[in-house]
Design goal:
eight-stranded parallel beta barrel, 11 helices, 8 strands, about 50% helix
């Protein structure tokens, strides 16, 4: 059963986790401890982000295929257009297929250095995620996910354009979307309304960033274009120490998740940062 099949049943909200490829042995140990801690929650799927350079890309494929072959988890590999030819992309898709990975998260990706830098297309590559979806659809029998933006993409600052681009990706063959991080539930539902007004029925899963450090969440918000509401900032800044920041951050994320589920979101996708405690706390809070 694919992720698209699961979302189509609508029996219950999906729960899923994102990991990133480790840079060294210590980080690898941390990743696999996190996988071991979260696997007993029986997530509907897990994903592994795509590195910005060759060595990280190799580790992405290695970790993703290891998860697919050595665990019982449903696994999705990421793929970006950054600094890769069509031949390079096809080679990665072949590696995923050989490793038993049947789901691909297709994103254009940002240039090394972040989304504020101008996008540069590889001379033999692709220009955007829609073209990548089309390539994946031609290459093999993959279930394809794509990115969505509750807050406007930082490059264009145009929510209507974001909705049109998501619709284009759906028409090209994407089966579901996962959002970038955000902090207002209404931002998510406004996105859904914009997309539905264009006749696009793609399921959109909210992406959730557990807040454990103020500096970290500010960094990721700036990179993704997400707005941190004053109410969230003030609650975090009133926390007297790092432990309290984590507690308050867990409360904020739990409240956001609960509102999303109460108002009909089809699931939750947690950006774990290869750590399990905050995600576990939120998951437990939602089941009280």
């Amino acid at each position: 059963m694919t992720i698209a099949d699961l979302l189509a049943t609508g029996d219950k909200p999906s729960f899923s986790f994102e990991f990133f490829p480790p840079k060294d042995d210590a980080a690898s140990d941390q990743l696999w401890r996190t996988v071991a801690n979260l696997a007993p929650l029986h997530p509907d799927f897990v994903s592994v982000t795509y590195g910005a350079n060759g060595s990280q890309r190799d580790r992405t494929v290695e970790v993703t295929t290891r998860l697919a072959t050595q665990t019982r988890l449903r696994v999705m590999g990421h793929l970006t257009c950054v600094d890769q030819s069509v031949a390079d992309l096809s080679s990665v898709l072949d590696a995923y297929a050989r490793g038993g990975v049947g789901h691909i998260f297709a994103i254009r990706g940002d240039m090394p250095g972040g989304p504020s830098l101008p996008w540069v297309q590889h001379p033999d590559g692709l220009a955007n995620a829609t073209q990548l979806v089309e390539l994946i659809r031609r290459t093999g029998d993959f279930c394809i996910g794509v990115a969505a933006f509750p807050d406007p993409h930082p490059a264009q600052h145009d929510p209507v354009l974001d909705a049109r681009i998501l619709t284009d990706k759906w028409q090209a063959g994407a089966s579901f979307a996962i959002t970038q991080l955000f902090f207002r539930a209404q931002s998510y539902f406004d996105l859904v309304d914009r997309v539905r007004s264009l006749g696009c029925e793609i399921p959109i899963i909210p992406g959730i960033m557990p807040i454990t450090m103020i500096s970290q969440v500010v960094k990721f918000a700036e990179m993704s274009g997400a707005e941190i509401p004053k109410s969230v900032r003030s609650r975090l800044e009133l926390a007297p120490d790092p432990s309290a920041v984590r507690t308050v951050g867990t409360q904020i994320a739990t409240e956001l998740c609960q509102e999303l589920l109460d108002r009909g979101a089809p699931g939750l996708h947690f950006f774990t940062q290869n750590r399990s405690l905050a995600t576990l706390d939120i998951w437990r809070n939602l089941r009280r």
